[in-house]
Design brief:
It is a single chain. The chain is α/β, with parallel strands linked by helices and about 375 residues long. It has one domain. The protein has a 6-stranded mixed sheet with strand order 8-5-9-3-2-10, sandwiched between helices. A two-stranded parallel sheet has the order 1-6.
Length: about 375
């Protein structure tokens, strides 16, 4: 299901942060194979397995996926063939507290970007330069050098009750996914310890890796890197657990369905590229209503899974939107001079961050 990957592109950043450290470049440094890591830990407890493989997993399971997959997949699509908008002008809002007069800017981000996208517009850069700090969903660049944070990420993505993914999805779906990962050289036994949501994340990453001229980093990483260079504070709006909970918010039945749907459409790379191109064009033109799913997407979901889908969407978007709006309100009330940026999907619909802030009594003005 292509829209599952597109939701991730506009909704949260953690999904692809560990795939290749924001790049598709090959890493020639020596790394221990994930399969060897799994063998080393077969005699340990589940918790010990997660702890001892945390660093290796973020630098092998995901890294090896990104490197091996590129060589194994074959058919790719050049994203430039599917994008019309070259000059980017992302969605931007100004929020003002009528009581204090404090104001703050909200930016809708996208988490993967074409390599030859234009520079950010001057008005946005002027806003950034006027701020003392930026607030992002999560500073993924810091995660890459923080072993404790990596361990927490891996724990959040692995089963902690002694089960494996085989206990949570059907045998048919498991074998179908395992066969695909094996075909592209990305399967190891260690993968079985990770949640169905993690398997979905890996399949989504595979789709992105098949798009040429696309960087697995976007607005967040650009401004985080710039803020570090400019000695500006980088504020985490969420913690790792909130990101991993969003990644693993599927119940077993809905995860099973989603894995099957992704695998059924995984070779329609032109269709996926076209969908991404449409989404990117809307974002680049400053569209403030980038819905995570269309009515057509939802209509395809089996009726008996609609409640499961709604629960997943609530965890991925609505619950987090409320938290994000509360954090933005907190920053406003304290007079924090920051540029607040979260995935563009978090501003869509009645429960978007901008609308929630307006309901709280703030003045919200769309300016870009």
């Amino acid at each position: 299901m292509k829209n599952k990957t597109l939701i991730a592109i506009v909704a949260f950043v953690m999904a692809f942060s560990c795939a290749s450290c924001g790049k598709k470049d090959d890493d020639s440094s020596s790394k221990k194979p994930a399969a060897e890591s799994a063998a080393d830990t077969t005699e340990t407890t589940d918790e010990e397995t997660v702890e001892t493989t945390a660093e290796e997993t973020t630098e092998t399971t995901d890294q090896e996926t990104s490197e091996t997959v590129e060589n194994a997949l074959g058919t790719t699509a050049d994203i430039n063939d599917f994008i019309e908008t070259k000059e980017i002008d992302p969605p931007l809002w100004k929020v003002t507290d009528p009581e204090s007069g404090n104001s703050m800017y909200l930016l809708g981000t996208i988490h993967v970007m074409p390599t030859d996208a234009s520079d950010y517009p001057a008005d946005l850069m002027d806003i950034y330069n006027s701020c003392d700090s930026i607030a992002v969903e999560y500073d993924v660049t810091a995660l890459q050098s923080d072993l404790n944070a990596q361990m927490e990420y891996v724990k959040g993505m692995a089963y902690s009750d002694g089960t494996t993914v085989k206990d949570h999805i059907s045998e048919e779906t498991y074998n179908k996914a395992k066969d695909y990962f094996t075909k592209i050289g990305a399967y190891t036994e260690l993968l079985d310890q990770y949640t169905a949501g993690y398997w979905i994340n890996q399949l989504s990453t595979v789709m992105l890796l098949r798009l040429e001229n696309l960087e697995l980093s976007g607005t967040d990483v650009y401004f985080i890197t710039k803020a570090n260079e400019d000695n500006k504070e980088v504020i985490n709006i969420e913690d790792i657990s909130m990101q991993t909970e969003a990644l693993t918010a599927y119940n077993d039945e809905y995860a099973d369905y989603t894995i099957n749907d992704l695998l059924d459409e995984i070779d329609d790379i032109d269709g996926f590229a076209a969908d991404y191109g449409e989404l990117f064009d809307k974002w680049a033109k400053g569209d403030g209503e980038i819905a995570s799913e269309s009515e057509e997407d939802i209509a395809k979901i089996p009726e008996d899974l609609l409640d499961d889908h709604d629960a997943y969407s609530k965890a991925l978007l609505d619950d987090r939107n409320k938290y994000m709006a509360d954090k933005a309100s907190e920053y406003l009330k304290s007079g924090k001079n920051c540029l607040f940026m979260v995935g563009a999907a978090h501003y869509s619909g009645e429960n978007g961050v901008d609308n929630l802030l307006e309901k709280m009594g703030y003045t919200v003005e769309k300016i870009g």
